[in-house]
Amino acid sequence: PLSLEQCVDIFRNCEQLLLFHQLYLRGLHSRVEKWPVVNLGDVLKLFTPMLAVYHQYIGNQPHTLDVLFALKLRQQFKDFLECLEKKLSCKGMTLEDLLMTPLNRILGYITDLHELK
Fold it and tell me: Could you tell me the pTM of the whole model?
């Protein structure tokens, strides 16, 4: 089994990231409802400071991967992950892939902001 410390090491501030994205999505939906006149600037301006939640997540990534690597040396944990990763809901993604999703998302936001200039 995983210790509480290991769970925190792996999933540090994921709940904060989820909350940020739920609020951001709600803000985007409220603008899209006003189609065809859509102004996303105020949503981006409001949520840009909140991107700071990524700072802790990104800073913790090397430690997260170290903890995950050490856990995967235990056959029982490795088997458990492999069983979960075979589920359709994982869409063929590993836990490492899923943990990288927020990083990929922030890169997408940066690209989107550059395109809006």
Answer: 0.74
